[in-house]
Amino acid sequence: MASLRVLILCCNNFQTFPIQVCTLANLQVLDISENQIQKIPSEICNLKRIQKLNISSNQFLYFPIELCQLQSLKELNMNQKNGRKLTRLPQELSKMTQLKGLDISNNAIRELPRNIGEMRSLVSLLAYNNQIRYLPPSILSLNQLQKLNLSGNNLTALPSGIHNLFSLKDINFDDNPLLRPPMEICKGKQLYTIACYLQRAEERDDKILEKILKTVANNITETSFQFLCQKLNLVTSEIDTSTKSTLLLSEKVQRALDRWKMKNRNLSTDALRDQLTRGLTMIGAYEIMDKITALQLFACTIKF
Questions:
Q1: Among 199, 233, 262, where does a domain finish?
Q2: pTM score, two decimals?
Q3: The domain that contains 90 carries what CATH number?
């Protein structure tokens, strides 16, 4: 038994994980799927050579954090088609840096770990039939990723930098309420088409934001500008003091808003626009808000 490398224990109605398995130091493949297991013992860390682990369709109360100790693991299957649905994944999942294949499909997971980008060896990520609402920015760091299946989730938008996943060959975003890009763009499952759409959308959003900033600069009063600076944490004194006295109000506002945009360049265009409109609403700049709304409505009528 000590030399055992492959062990198949699926469909045995186990209520608990057989602790004897943890003594098999040479074990490389373990399939214990289709059982009634709720917990994984900490002793599983003794499986120093384990490479493939299938624990799908069991009755786990939560993601077994003990698995994150398995540094040799390359494939993990936690597809819960016939098991209890998981609702979250731990941040510790990122410790599994050697993992190449991860299947977390058929669960009720609402979000991927923020640091999933640290799993840089990941080649295949299957997360279909969950409740994932958005993708964390770090997912764009998965440079080895070739297969990504996120069909049957609650995604409304894809990250504009998805073209950075240059190794990606097989993608599936079917059955999501996608707005950006719309579902018809994703049906062909062509990364290039999706990336082109998102790039054009981002460029258009940048132009619209610039027009919004210009609208604010040309229409805001001195008093309202001071209040807006407070809401956006803008420091007007940062404008070059040598030219400050000669600047028109519109120029001063434009410079301040450009500086604000630069300081918050890590935020998306949508986030910047939302932050600005909230600030304008809070200071009661309703006439400017009406102009911005009209600008956005006009922009929506233009196809690209």
A1: 199
A2: 0.74
A3: 3.80.10.10
| One domain for residues 40 and 185 | yes
DSSP string, 178-197: -BBTBHHHHTT--HHHHHHH
Q: Determine, yes or no, domain membership for 43.
A: yes
Cα–chain center distance at 29: 31
Domain range for residue 166? Answer: 6-199
DSSP SS3 for 24 = coil
- Is the Cβ–Cβ distance between 133 and 154 less than 8 Å? yes
Residue 246's identity, in one-letter code, is T
Nearest Cα neighbor of 216 from 116, 291, 294 is: 291
CB atoms within 10 A of CB 197: 18
Tokens representing 15? 């209520």
Give the model confidence (pLDDT) of 191-236 as tens digits: 777 777 777 777 788 888 899 999 999 999 999 999 999 988 887 6
List the end-to-end C-alpha distance of the chain, in Å, as a whole number: 64
Strand (E) or helix (H) holding 52: strand 52-54
Closest to 89 measured CA to CA, from 121, 120, 72, 112: 112
| Neighbour count for residue 283 (Cβ, 10 Å) | 19
User: How many CB atoms neighbour CB 156 within 10 A?
Assistant: 12
**Beta-bridge partner residues of 179:** 182
Q: Which ranges of the chain would DSSP assign to H, the alpha helix? A: 183-186, 191-219, 222-231, 241-244, 249-263, 269-282, 286-300
- pLDDT by residue (tens digit) across 25-57? 999 999 999 999 999 999 999 999 999 999 999
Asked whether residue 156 falls in the same domain as residue 214, the answer is no
Residue appearing with tokens 């624990």: 55
